[in-house]
Design brief:
mainly beta; 8 helices; six-stranded mixed β-sheet
Amino acid sequence: MKSKIQVAIVLSVVTVFAEKGPGVQEAQSLAVPPDLIDPSWLGDRAQGQYEAAAAFEVYCDFAFSDQIAQSGISFRNRIVDDSGKAYIPVHYDHGNGLSVADVDGDGLIDLYFPNQVGGNQLWKNLGDGRFVDITSEALALDRSIDVAASFADIDNDGDPDLYVTAVRSGNHLFANDGKGGFEDISAESGLDYKGHSSGAVFFDYNRDGLLDLFLANVGIYTSEDRVPVSRGLSEPNTEVEYEYYPGLKDAFFGHLKPERAERSLLYENIDGRRFVEVSEKRGLVDRGWSGDACPLDANEDGWPDLYVLNMQGDDEYYQNAGGEYFIRKSRPLFPTTPWGSMGIAAFDYDNDGRMDLFVTDMHSDMSEQVEPEREKEKSRMLHRDQHLPTSGSSIFGNAFFRSEGAGRFREVSDLIGVENYWPWGVSVGDLNADGYQDLLVTASMNYPYRYGVNSLFLNDRGRGFLDSEFVLGIEPRRGGRTAQPWFELDCFGADRGHRHCLEQGADLRPGKRRGRIVVWGALGSRAAAIIDLDGDGDLDIVTNEFNAQPMVLLSDLSARKPLLRYLKIELVGTRSNRSGLGAKVSIRTGARTYVQVRDGKSGYLSQSLFPLYFGLGEAETVDQIEIQWPSGRKQVVSGPIATNGLIEVTESP
């Protein structure tokens, strides 16, 4: 969410005066802020990227196109009023995650969209980029204000189970029957925590072959009241009414109030269906305002450590001591961290075999609204020192920690070009299949802020990253859209006291305002997943938007790149957890080696299960695959192994 303590809202009015009958006029359209509908800077930025791309040495002669209409997906994210009609700066505007997995074993990746209002939805992949809604009543969680979701095989039966987090109504765990049917086992599992939960990270911290859970809890940011959610502009006229807990007016000062802390929790998997909370027992007690975390073996001892984000303060790093307990090693390894951490990904950006760490910082950007020309700069941080209790240990912007081995990291975000504005989460994938991992950073703040672009960083062969969202068709959005109707006001009726009604309309004479106002707000993404949606061998992108329909961005790389080479790898653990979460996979092609760790992190607040995807440049075969399993076993699969397909590797006895 954006911690802009006081929001200066500048209004633009576009009025339609067409008469619909005697004394009846159409609604006045109110764009917030003035240049929302057609921002002049978008064209300049696009032109600048096109010109820069002429000098790119990496392959970029392909593009994405939004195929939401052809996909059949009709899901629409819906928000509570605190991010719309009754706007206040509060954590509801953090929105939702997006989790993906093959839920029914047909080899196609399905999509689960968490939602704040109106229920979550599960969409089955039919192939060729087409989907059908198969949401059950249980999975919809229709009355829950949900946040995020994680797919993980908790019972090692070979299918992805599902965990959904919520605001105060209780988190839910669903066991998959192997055919895409889900049973609610929340109460019996011990994972039905009620609070202000966010990201849920499954990892096998004690390497016993069962996936454990770290649950990130933000902090207390809601009141005790229950109020109705306003009916959306596109909502059918039904009897269904939804309620939510309004946010506290000083929610973004909550990190300064110890009584509002809500510590995150570590759960140990006992038998595949039951979990026990072991935070204090294992020494992992984190009271920061956390939205997410990421497993990372920073000291390379084979035991998964944990990097925990803090959205208003210092991030924390907990080193795993042989599966027995965790030791806080935050400042020795990471002396400075982003002040407003929001998204995280661990991956090897320069193919040196070591896992680097990228952390996005949303809340530092909320101290000041900047012009588009300054979006690549760190925040000047205009919050007072009292708001920043970090003793000078903060980076006011994104951080990229390059691993130098032996538990040493160097912060290089500005050197490699990964700063952007209003970032949420990060998704990783080799979009041009050249052997180097690229980044998609979802961004934008929606109403009442200006439009913000999603950032696509194309990996410049390990030397840095190239701004490419316009070059590759991520921006501008389909039809050049930057905004949509956000909510409607009846200024002669129930909404007469709303600030937009009290402000002057198009007719500047007091008392001559229009009776109905449709307020427009900026479009913006929250979560994304990078996967091969249509099975053509290249990576596509699907998003979960904030208060809007998803984008289904299909790549034409397979049709444009003559020598497309890739390999997908699926892992089947035996001694390790069935999905092989935590496994380190290295593949060798000639003199090149590519390394990925399967941690399931797929994007903002989300964990997913899908095969690892290795772009191979122009390599025609793979010489060797080496897997370091979570159990500690090392396994080698010798080549030659054909490219452009899927290989399944089962952990050797």
